[in-house]
Known about the structure:
By secondary structure, this protein is α/β, with parallel strands linked by helices. It is built from 4 helices and 8 strands. The chain has helices at 36-47, 52-59, 63-83, 131-134; strands at residues 8-10, 18-19, 27-34, 85-89, 94-96, 101-103, 109-110, 128-130.
Amino acid sequence: MSRRKLLRKIITPPTIKGIAVFGPLRKKSEKIRLFLEEYEAIRLLDFENMNQEEAAIHMEVSRPTLTRIYENARKKVAQSLIGGIDMVISGGEYLFDESWYRCESCKANFNIFTEKEHCCPICKTTEIMTLNEYYS
């Protein structure tokens, strides 16, 4: 029996929920699901230019676990690009390092939120959801 996966820490949530492919190869019925921890691995290694040891520390996983997550993410991105398949970012075994929220009105993500005000700091609407709800 395998042990339960530990939650992988996400520092910065994605600003998008996926990528749509344009062109004649587009397969409308298929979608590739990129887990949030896979997105975070790509963000830390390729965008932030961290080495694997640093990224593993940020995500609170071992370096071999980070390597597996990253390899899966690279395969999915390649399948999307080469195969013309839309990619959706959602789900996985993750937790945000802070409580993050999303405004349904202006679509802003924010982590500064007081229960007294209970409104978006940008547009002041009360249409707010947690990012865990948004990415599930």
